[in-house]
């Protein structure tokens, strides 16, 4: 992960300068629903009590909730439920997932900020956490929380088309958009990072995609299947069944580097186009007034999840990378990634009409 390495080196330099101035596993093919059912089945904590736990006698003493600030059915929802299942194994209590959709993820984040600073409510998010602040609608972002950690990375964002479209390559699609501007649609969700991905493709490739507000990932897949839209970005695992049947084609990987788990998906640079990094990571945080010792317990538990062989196998079966960055280092990583990948398109994003 070259991009992560570069960001971490930058983070380390900042931290040094500042100092000087003073895995029971889900099957590989599990669905989000199955993961949820498995998590719910642990509600009594009986299974968790039989496994190694972290923490002390005071925390945790009751179920922990993870707020997922998007609708059920997408990759964030699925990954959250698997993380919750394994986290319950190491914290010794049930960890449940609650979907709170709305406000471009702000409703769910605000629910944590309005709650008690006791560590019993966490929130999961990624780059979408920064979008409302970019839009000027709120000051809430990752810096509004204490960061627990980042356990999971997804370098599988692909630009997808229905195979019936007949596109030969990403270069073919780009040329077609130039020949007939604003006729080839790019399905996205207003106020989400994938809206900025469309802006980036138009700017960096000289493309002329027509931006269409379709909705979440499930809505995008439905539109692609029905040929109601031309292209969309999706995590590869979400649409892997359609890739297997040949109904969908992955035009290119939108990442900083080639993914060895997806050797047949080309990078834009293989066709003379600039590579655009739309990879993802999954961040967890808590109320900013949560005691540090509680954050430490949650972070230690999350790190144990990332060391669980069964968790690793489950995630790798979905082409994801398991790695752990803890607390302040994870927060610095998230902020730097945002600066590198979204901030350069702020002007175009705001001019596009985002409210």
Automatic annotation (TrEMBL):
Pfam family, one: TctC
Keywords, ordered alphabetically: Signal
PROSITE patterns: PROKAR_LIPOPROTEIN (PS51257)
Record's signal peptide: 1-19
Region Disordered, annotated ranges: 30-57
Family that this chain belongs to: Belongs to the UPF0065 (bug) family.
PANTHER family assigned to the protein according to its UniProt record, in alphabetical order: BLR1237 PROTEIN, TRICARBOXYLATE-BINDING PROTEIN
The protein, known as: Tripartite tricarboxylate transporter substrate binding protein
Organism of origin: Candidatus Lachnoclostridium stercoravium
